[in-house]
């Protein structure tokens, strides 16, 4: 019955898309180029005017690759990577030229746009014409239209407007395709911006608003998380939605019904994922988000009071007490079409004190580091339990990208409080189908934030399940210095002015690890490793306790967990 229900739902969606597709195509054919732009939405991403000098000198640095054009057009050379080509053709770098506020920079911006407009027959599979890149280019051109069109001749003006109209037609056709994925949302954002900023018909503007509303409904969950479960996706999305919200208000237009509440929920969700140092916890594709971008987004937060503690639809939970913060992945993998960057990190957690991150996940490296990205997605790259060196999810190539195709189907999370602690009781069945085991984890943070207790347990789902080797991993932030405690049952961790003692009821090893989410690339770090072999009702207990420089406890809290 469940299979029949899913099949019926998918069939209904397919039929609906098939019915809508011809309408989108016809509408795209009838869409004219705008005669003028009424408003240029503000680009709120941070700009660096020194980049304008580099671009004028012929140096283009994108996606970890630097290219010197030697006087040639950057659009005419063989790109070093598809990611580099996407960044170039997205024109987000125009903001740096605008920030330079020089006539030379404005002329250079127009000349480079001229080079792109001169492309008549794109090569097959040119990344510059992928829907997401077309959407980014549309948003960049709209935001930076003042420097592109100021003092422009009529010929350039007409070709630029025609190119904007062509972008909108491509985006409409892309939304007509029956494919799912995060790209549909950025396409809808770009179409809505085109509709509200240009002199498109009110009918088209209303249609674009409805398309954006539909994608926000589909991709932004009720708790503010993105369906991909990647916090970084929200940061990038908000950097486009916040200016769009302002553009609707400036034109006196009706925004999508879901736009304003979605923005508020997304910002609230990011606060849940935030450590004391302002950074976001590293889950499901989250890498090194530039702090200026996150700060820009959170500056629009109108809420007061502490951050929320639960995001049940997105699958994240938060413990906070004193100066300590714990963020936990307590959710199943996202749908396969949104799982291209998701990680096998169920029940992993991150832990910080006084703005110093202690326990982390390895994080996601840049998109250009494909081999490292695959390593970062396995369960062993997360601070959780690993059974038989296997991941709790299966990742497989599907439709041109590596997606999670199987993983935990049931994840449990229960919050309770005791006289001295705040407790999360967690469990997932990611190892049940293959190994016949559930992983249960309990996390307890004392009310003063001085101690974090944990307990991990493997529970057999049926009789006769053989004993399995398992490893508990606690990856430490690169700033953390670690030394073993006596008898090998723990370690002393120092991170800035914060000192923490880790103890476990089994031998603790200190091994090398790698932190992929560093601002300057991957960095070496350490991890605490506790090995064991499960048996009937096996439990492994461990704890982190704040201590002074001599290793003595700052606070003694009862263990009534």
From TrEMBL:
GO cellular component: cell envelope
Pfam families associated with the record: Hepar_II_III_C
Gene source species: Methylosinus trichosporium (strain ATCC 35070 / NCIMB 11131 / UNIQEM 75 / OB3b)
Name of the protein: Heparinase
Main location: other
An example molecular function term from Gene Ontology annotations: lyase activity
Residue span(s) of domain Heparinase II/III-like C-terminal: 306-543
Intracellular or extracellular location(s): Cell envelope
Highest taxon, organism lineage: Bacteria
Gene3D superfamilies according to UniProt: 2.70.98.70, Chondroitin AC/alginate lyase
């Amino acid at each position: 019955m469940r299979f029949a229900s899913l099949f019926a739902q998918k069939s209904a969606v397919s039929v609906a898309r098939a019915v809508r597709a011809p309408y989108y195509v016809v509408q795209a054919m009838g869409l004219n180029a705008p005669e003028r732009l009424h408003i240029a939405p503000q680009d709120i991403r941070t700009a660096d005017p020194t980049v304008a000098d580099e671009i004028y000198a012929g140096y283009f640095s994108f996606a970890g690759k630097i290219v010197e054009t030697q006087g040639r057009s950057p659009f005419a050379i063989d790109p070093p990577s598809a990611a580099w080509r996407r960044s170039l053709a997205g024109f987000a770098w125009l903001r740096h030229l605008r920030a330079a506020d020089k006539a030379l920079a404005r002329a250079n911006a127009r000349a480079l746009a001229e080079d792109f407009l001169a492309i008549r027959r794109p090569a097959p599979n040119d990344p510059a014409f992928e829907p997401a890149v077309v959407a980014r280019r549309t948003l960049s051109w709209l935001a930076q239209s003042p420097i592109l069109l100021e003092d422009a001749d009529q010929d350039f003006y007409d070709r630029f407007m025609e190119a904007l109209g062509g972008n909108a037609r491509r985006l409409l056709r892309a939304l007509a395709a029956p494919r799912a994925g995060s790209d549909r949302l950025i396409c809808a954002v770009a179409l809505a911006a085109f509709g509200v900023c240009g002199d498109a018909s009110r009918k088209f503007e209303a249609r674009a608003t409805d398309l954006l509303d539909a994608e926000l409904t589909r991709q932004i969950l009720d708790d503010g998380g993105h369906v991909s479960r990647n916090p970084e996706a929200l940061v990038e999305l908000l950097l486009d939605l916040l200016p769009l919200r302002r553009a609707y208000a400036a034109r006196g237009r009706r925004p999508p019904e879901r736009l304003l509440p979605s923005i508020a929920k997304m910002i609230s969700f990011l606060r849940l994922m935030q450590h004391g140092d302002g950074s976001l916890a590293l889950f499901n594709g989250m890498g090194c988000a530039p702090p200026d971008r996150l700060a820009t987004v959170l500056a629009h937060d109108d809420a007061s009071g502490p951050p929320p503690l639960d995001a049940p639809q997105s699958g994240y939970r938060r413990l906070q007490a004193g100066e300590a913060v714990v963020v936990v992945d307590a959710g199943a993998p996202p749908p396969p079409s949104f799982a291209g960057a998701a990680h096998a990190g169920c029940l992993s957690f991150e832990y910080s004190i006084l703005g110093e991150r202690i326990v982390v996940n390895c994080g996601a490296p840049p998109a250009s580091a494909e081999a490292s990205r695959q390593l970062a997605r396995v369960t062993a790259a997360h601070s959780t339990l690993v059974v038989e060196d296997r991941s709790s999810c299966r990742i497989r190539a599907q439709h041109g990208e590596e997606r999670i195709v199987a993983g935990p189907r049931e994840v449990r999370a229960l919050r309770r409080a005791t006289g001295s602690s705040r407790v999360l009781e967690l469990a997932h069945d990611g190892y049940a189908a293959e190994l016949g085991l559930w992983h249960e984890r309990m996390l307890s943070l004392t009310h003063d934030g001085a101690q974090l207790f944990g307990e991990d347990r493997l529970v057999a789902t049926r009789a006769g399940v053989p004993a399995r080797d398992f490893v508990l991993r606690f990856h430490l932030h690169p700033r953390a210095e670690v030394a073993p405690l006596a008898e090998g049952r723990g370690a002393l961790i120092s991170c800035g002015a914060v000192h923490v003692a880790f103890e476990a009821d089994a031998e603790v090893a200190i091994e090398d690890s790698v932190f992929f989410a560093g601002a300057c690339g991957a960095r070496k770090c350490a991890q605490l490793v506790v090995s064991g072999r499960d048996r009937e009702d096996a439990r492994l207990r461990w704890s982190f306790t704040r201590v002074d420089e001599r290793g003595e406890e700052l606070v003694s809290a009862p263990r009534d967990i």
